[in-house]
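Appendix C reproduces, verbatim, an entry submitted by the partner laboratory led by Prof. M.T., so that reviewers can inspect both the input and the predicted structure.
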Amino acid sequence: MNRKILQLAIPNIITNITVPLLGMADLAILGRLDNPAYIGAIALGGTIFNFLYWGFGFLRMGTSGFTAQSFGSNNKTEIIMTFVRAILIALAGSTIILLLQKPIDYFSFLIFKGEADVELFASEYFRIRVWAAPATLSLYVFYGWFLGIQNAKAPMAIAIVINILNIIFNVFFVFYLGMKSDGVALGTVLAQYIGLIMAITIFYKKYRKYFKHYSLQALKQINALKLFLSVNKDILLRTLLLIFVLSFFTAKSAEQGNIILAVNTLLFQFFFLFSYFVDGFAYAAEALVGKYIGANDNLNLKKSIISLFKWGVGLSLPFTLIFLFWGDVLLRILSDNVEIIEASKPYMFWIVLIPILSFAAFLWDGIYVGATASKAMLITMLLASFIIFMPVYYFTQSSLGNHGLWLSLILFLFGRGLFQTLWAPKAIFKFKPSIF
């Protein structure tokens, strides 16, 4: 079981790590230009795409859960039909984004304000990069589908190729063709479509046998489609709640002034660093839990969950020790601003608590996705957001200030894991997918 977990988790960890590395490369490229507005442009434009694409995260999660269950039950028709339903939704969603790109562009910059030149370059960045939407959303489906059939190496290979090509294109367009943030946007578009071609090629070479089981009649099955849409709707709402909590945290940080905003943004990188690793095991959970539920194999279902939590504890403890004893070193790697580093130190102990108190929420997310227990995911997110996060913040903001904000976030993360643990006997171990 440990070998199966690692075979899925390690490629996903590598895939996750490529994301911040690309961001760092983009900043390094644009940071060598004479106008700092270009950095602000991709930061602002990137934020818009984060909000836009996070909403479609259900395409990956929902696809992996249903595919894993179909794989576990050896239901070849549903394996391919899950892919077909998801890719049709991805194409429809990307078409809507392209048709509405001008209103999205306009309203985004009513919400995300910047200086005039930053907004100008960010808008240009958006209008170019938005044409990658069909490739980006389709890749979500391919990533989820590959993971569902227990193949984590394909998404890893695709992500590595995309990010390497993206960096190469960016360097070429910016330094050799004299482009600016628009060159970075164009590089992203080209890299995404090449990644999509790679995904299609892998799919065709290794898995085209599943197309023999394609069924137009199955595509028309209302119950299967309704279940797929219902699960994805719940995942979408759950994701929007998570975006709300993180955005609220950022907004309340900003209200405390530029120093606290910088401090919290800096410290949040510790959270992201841990999440890149633990998410690898959450993705492994999606694949394994879905497979064992599809196969009605309760023994291996429970064994996989126990093993996953052992890995969660084993991962969180060293991160806790690293943050405790070398947090100051990491701070100085992230920033050389003495004022911000000194202002960060009183809040470092919150960072030390994050790994051990949050790993359960990450792992349960993967387990719930694998079980397609989306309604329970949504309910537990609602409880953690509005029973814990919001009340704790408003009860402590006047007396604890920024400590109250961090307390509310830490308890939110812990509360999610706690609620999911309490809900698991009903949501996971007695869960029966209705399409089988």
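DSSP finds 17 helices and no strands in the chain. Additional entries are available on request from the coordinating office.
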